[in-house]
Amino acid sequence: MKAFFEAIGSLFTDILFIPMDMFRAMELENWWTANIITWAFILICCAATWYWIQQLQVFKASQEDEQDTTAHSFL
Q1: What distances in angstroms separate CA 49 from CA 11, 46, 70, one per listed residue?
Q2: pLDDT (tens digit, 9 = 90+) per residue, 10-50?
Q3: Cβ neighbour number for residue 13 with a 10 Å cutoff
């Protein structure tokens, strides 16, 4: 069983993290390029937030959302 978990650890550290090692080495040369994955996630989150806000405006304009100010029946 120990060999199984060591194999999983070896898979991640020796094979799957090779691109991350490349970005870590690149950071000393160009910080912006080394953080390209971070920038991609930021852009994806910004696009998702924009889409979500647009959908909220669509539902608010069509009066499909129910805005009940009481969170529980006992209030």
Answers
A1: 35, 5, 26
A2: 999 999 999 888 888 888 888 888 888 899 999 999 999 99
A3: 11
Q: How many degrees, rounded to 5, is the angle at CA 26 between CA 24 and CA 32?
A: 100
Look at the block and give the residue holding tokens 């080394």. Answer: 34
Q: Which amino acid is at 23?
A: F
Domain-by-domain residue ranges, the chain? 2-61
- Provide CB contacts within 8 A for 59, sequence distance 6+: 65
Residue 65 in contact with residue 57, Cβ under 8 Å?
no
DSSP 19-65: HHHHHHHHTTT-HHHHTHHHHHHHHHHHHHHHHHHHHHHHHHHTT-S
